[in-house]
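OP here, attaching both records as promised.
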Amino acid sequence: MVLELTGIESRKIMIDTSKITTLKHDIEEAKHVVFLTGAGISTHSGIPDYRSKTGIYNGISEPPETILSEDTLYQRPELFHNFVMQNMYFPDAQPNPIHEKIAKICNEKGYLITQNIDRLDTKAGNQHVLEFHGNLYEIYCTKCHQPVSYEAYAQDFRHQDCGGIIRPKVVLYGEAINPETLTKSVEIMRQSDLIIIAGTSFVVYPFAQLLAYRNPAAKIWAVNKTPLPAQGINEIIGDALDVFPNL
């Protein structure tokens, strides 16, 4: 059965309700659900994604791999600071129904591994969140290693106490994922009996490689606007905002 829905901003879409029903049943039957999410989850909270036509990388003066690198952080700290402040921080953003539904399921019987660095999942009350690429709001001085508030960082990239360069605790281009994060991610994947991928093109590594560590018996679903490159996935093609409230 195909259902015509009119959603946010009068978006008219067609959704296969039988797939939603099956996914809902799989969630109810699962003992350990794992969500793998990306930027598409937060766009409905007013946070742009990265590489779409309206994304933060569109039309920038230098490649993002250059601007958001450790070299730029230390060699051109003003450029780094201006870019993240103008394009990546949305302190007033609030969780949307997708965050809320994921939080409800995770708090009951699951875990979220997210690429997002906007902390909206924890704002939604999710107690089982692993931020694979870190969190923009964990900010510290690279010289004295003291924590720094967002408000202080917004004013200056230099630490007033010691003059060190301040940075958010996120994985920059060229930096490795925290080994503890990788170990925890693999552990979570191995416990899974249901995996739900949402709001991500699932092409960024090593995040996309996490599927290799899943429980072989786990069912895999994707709720995404476009098909994913991975094989063996049950897919609902559409906007997650039109799907998750019905789960």
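Record two, same layout:
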Amino acid sequence: MTPRGSVSQLLVSVWNRPWVRLVTYLLLVALALWLARKIASVIVTGLVAFALAYLFNPALVWLERRRVPRALGVLLLVLVLGVLAALLVWAGAAQLGSLLADLPRFVKQLGDLGGDLLERLRGVPGLQDAPERLNAAIGEQVQALSQNALPTLQRLLSSGGSLLGGASLVLGWLGQAAFVVTLALYFMLDYPRLGPSVLRLFPSAWQGAVRRLSGDVADSFGGYARGQLLIGLAAGLLVTLSLLLIGIPNALGLGLLLAALNIVPYIGLVIAAVPALLLAIPGGALKIVLVLAVYFVTNQIVGNVLSPYVLGRTSNLSPAAVLLALLVGLTLGGLVGGLLAVPTATLLKHWTEHYWLTSRLHGRGDAGG
């Protein structure tokens, strides 16, 4: 039987060989990647829940400073957000039902508007029979829409959801959202203990660096998230008031829709404009033009003025840097790149100022110059 000391010495001797450590680390990395791929949905769910907890933690801290216990603060936050979510769902459901009921009529009215325009252009060579062709095509589309809209909607609602094994895709997404919210609530309650608990998992020599780096990432992405929340609320309020002045029905629901979709740079506003344009069709060409003008002006204000200013304040970047970061992100990574552009630029700026500009290597460069 081999003595315990001999076994320990043998293990130390083997571990001291560089190729053994290299192979071990590579195997651990491969195992971590394989495991992350297997539980990718769980990781994403946890990250989204933690992001929600981090986003609303300043509000809970503000309440704690006014002697409101964290548990009571979480309850108040849930009540406020629940009312807002119920309002959004109610407005969205009413808007969706109205659109589905009136869609054939909207398509017909849109065809009439186009027909009136083509009637005025009948004298142009090649467009003499354009109104008749357009009316025939519109009639076919309206008939097909009336016959197929309900079966299509039923097929969509009956498709299976994969996440929680529910009976439909809608129920699956609702179940996922409920689970994320529940997990976020537990994160909010335990938030003051989460950081120290995770930090203790790292070696003592690493904990200082890990604390600083995680704080940098949290500040960068948290400032961006809060800035986007403010921008979305401002854009939704602007569109709501403008549509009320024009006389578009369900202006509050359209404003809430824009506030929710505004997180997607530029494209979210375009998507949110589609139901508003459909609701403007019964009012004629003038109302359609006014709605287009509202969303165009809102896009210019939000994209070129409000976003650079607010994100510049919350992310500590100049407005020009915000616009350039968005342009680079959209060019390199599309929508995902646009979402990550500003917080990534903020993080790089922070690291440059705190680690590179204060480093000895940078000081030597200045001295050598």
